[in-house]
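Structure, all three chains, one model.
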Amino acid sequence: MKPGRAARLCFLLLCLCCAGCTGWQSAMDPQGPAARRLDQLFWLFTGTAALIWLLVMLVLALALLRRRMPPEAVAEHRSTVAVGGAVAATVLIITGLTFASYLATRQDSAGHADALVIRVRGFQWWWEVTYPDAAPDHSFLTANEIHIPVGRPVRIELAAADVIHSFWVPNLAGKQDMIPGRDNALTFTVQQPGIYRGQCAEFCGLQHAHMALLVVAEPPEAFERWRAAQLAEAQAPRTPEAAEGQRLLEIKACGACHTVRGTAAAGTLGPDLTHLASRQYLAAGMLPVTRGALAAWIADPQTIKPGNNMPMVSLSADELQALSAYLVDLK
Amino acid sequence: MTALRCAALVVLALAGCKQEERAMRLDPPIAEAMDAVALMPDGIGGRPPEVHVAMGNPYRGNAYQISQGKRLYEWFNCRGCHADGGGGSGPALMDGWWRYGPDLVSIYVSIRDGRPNGMPPFRDRLTPEQIWQLTGYIQMMGAYSASAAAPGRNDRMFSRPSENRAPAAAPAPGQP
Amino acid sequence: MTRGRPAEDLRDTALAEVELTHGLARTWQTPSGFWGALATVDHKIIGRRYIATAFVFLALGGVLALLMRWQLARPESRILSPDLYNQVFTIHGTNMMFLFAVPVMEAMAVYLVPLMVGTRNIAVPRLNAFSYWMYLVGGVLLWVAFVLDMGPDVGWFAYVPLAGPQYGAGKRADIWAQMITFTEISALAVAVEIVVTVLKQRAPGMSLDRIPLFVWSMLVTSFIIILAMPAVMVASTSLILDRLVGTHFFNPAEGGDVLLWQHLFWFFGHPEVYIIFLPAVGMISSILPTFTRRPIFGYLPLVLALVGTGILAFGLWVHHMFTTGLPRVGESFFTASSMAIAVPSGIQIFCWLATIWYGRPVLKTPMLFILAFLFTFVIGGLTGVMVASVPLDTQVHDTYFVVAHFHYVLVGGAVFPLLGGVYYWFPKITGRMMSERIGRWVVGLLLAGFNLTFFPMHILGLQGMTRRIYTYQADMGWGGMNLFVSLSSLVLATGFLLFFIDAFRSARHGAPAGDNPWGAATLEWATSSPPPPYNFVRIPVVESASPLWDSPDALPVATGLRMDRRELLVSTVADAVPEARESSPGNSIWPLWAAAATTILLIASIFTPWAVVWGAIPVTIALIGWFWPKGTPEDES
């Protein structure tokens, strides 16, 4: 199968944009107390395991290479003691490790009263993110990108809209499944501002591989600014081309699935696009939000992300131009 | 070894069977051609586009396409008027009684262009491919016998037996 | 013929050696020709078929693995579409678990256990024939579906709702579920046969503390199968009911539960690991004495470790569900029990080390496989302790770390001993030796290829690479290591290829092996290679745990079995004191017809629930035919 030109272009863009971003989805690079505890526990286990493995291999090598004396009936008794000792050591070690892991879990399950609550719902194959608020006009929806203030505990409430997904941002915390008919939650705190990537960890169908999300940790002031900006309605079109784009969004199939607050588009089946261009990625981590990538995505979503639920809507080149001009302005 | 040889023969024989297609993307020219249905003057019945016939009626017996249609039925709130096919403010879809004809083209046109008395046109909200998927699903929903490609129940409260248990019990035409 | 001389004493006591062997061969032989081959109930012929079929599935599954590695070698590669990739990894997993690993272990047991306990055929041999046909059909069903692009695409674990009626379109998940039914019927049948064979058909004197350890491991394994497999049959049947009939076992909206599936599946799925692993450690415990020239160290602790593993196996299924949000107390319990499994595993490893320490190691190929096993399995076991810890598991669950872990356990822990076992018992099965020179290459390539392929996956998992993804983006930085892994997998594949070539070549042209080419101690080496249809001319009497070493010249034998009809010696469970002569069923084509009828029922019930009603008629007819008295000597006794 020959990749489409659009896909190749986007792929290139992606490479350029994110060269050198390694480690932003890694359990080895913890950025919060929860992940750090797990990392320490990991090294404790790994160190113990490596030591045991080396010991076993050493004994095996000695057993194979040692010189043998003819009668060894007496020695067998000693070896019974040795084997018994090894078994006793095994019991002690695993008891210690069980205890260590129990302690790590217990610290995690402590409650936090002042936690920021965020609801995340897994869809095939994107994430719906809700910032609830007691005042309905202060809660809002976004997708695939979670902003959190640094230093404040965050409680992510997890749910699934269709099949089982799993929320995993390895730099911040362990994973937790999102299961239809059940509610799960995950609490963590981030100490360093930064961008951390997560990915669905439970097999969820065709595009399981392309179901990423970003967690943007920023200072509290920046977070509040972002929050205020998200609460606003969509940016009104500033050029005639963008105005044409908005018209297309409303009359074509887009509005049937997507919402752009402040316009007639109010579908709830796909990600909320009100502040699409304030996000870094499109289609759950597939493409950067640029005008070219937007046009490529709209023109042929099924080649870029085969099997996803966005249909290919036939648009002329001019219409595509207008639509992408409008969307890329939705800061 | 004899058993292995027999197994090989069975595999060879079965390998001649038809593959189940799972097309995720229609080429744009085909998608456009798919919209070219020829309709009788009274708006009921007609001829499906040639490309539809040439492709072997891909939206009728294909489990994947039908399940996509079922998903669209949910998503575009067909249930709002037609319920789970039993009818509400819109007519029932599974009682074998079709106001505008039971054939694919009639159903396709009903969805695309709408019908009098409340059926809105979905021309601008669905692509031809999606309308065909819905058409396949709706025609199967009203069939008298269940097809092997029919989907099972939904993961929610469901007011009728699942599609693959058809024909579902339905009120006779004329009754409420 | 036998009718004509009813008064004559046809027991083996009264007959000369030549007359006896001829008579026994006539009674126990498999008739030649096509129908004879289909009707045989000889455990050796069926066992050979089972082993060969399982290795065919291993090769096919290996090809799928290479396809996946080809796809993953580069970021965003488009060699396999996501739809095809999902089918490929599902079928790779399903195939390796249900069509290779479990059946091949049972197949080795079908062949070896009757020989090792010194009896003439496996218990309920017609059921054995039936079980092979069921297994074969199950495997063919899966692969034919794959060829028709209807292969399951929901993972070998088939989690609902993805595999449920709403999200699993078509018949793909049904085919998976019904394939489970086929292989489970076959596995359960074999498990019952092995339990009966081991408990009731042991040679006189083979008390429980003299049973070869492979036989012990198969006994424990068979009990695990009998207790664990029903759970997955309940699960897969409920899934089919949900999908086909519209029940709501797994539908939260109507009172079902999505997690119920996971509990049922893993209540089987975790013991499944030990169903594969225990026979392998049994093989090691049986092979090791031969190549260290001494009895195994710590027979009793090893048996207790097997039994302990078998019991613990049922207490740790929840560690596959640590991220589903279960109560903390429960999770801590399952952490402790999952880690506790390290104790019996440790006991076994320490006993083997002591055996090597006090023995005189002979580094032949089977022994090299055991060393390769120790090298890799210990890593797998230790990473197992890591994933047993709830907090650590939340990081590594469903990542390549787990992929690496279970390949270390299953390939390092089960396939290496199995291949060692094949090199070890090949001369018994075919009468010819496999090549020692090629064998060393095979061990070397597999050990190097395996570790180079799977060790980096641990790191990939920690770097955030999740499982079951058909591709990954270039900026994730996983490309280099994935390419390395893919290239290494070619080394691994070469090792397997070499093994297959060696096996094919040696079966025809290998050096002829004597009865006991390795100088081993257990009963299967007391008969010729390959064994005659009746296994032993006279049933041996066992006086120690290493009979061939303790009575090197000639085994004492028990006499008194008839030669004009199929007779076995039945002995007591604990001490193997002979109790009775029992007739053993002769060849019959009816197991094949019964399997065909069951096949019709099961496959048709993918499409309509009425198949269970109408399909029951041919099954009933086949069973009547199976059990109809046919006037053979065995029927009359």
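The first strand of chain A starts at residue 116 and ends at 123.
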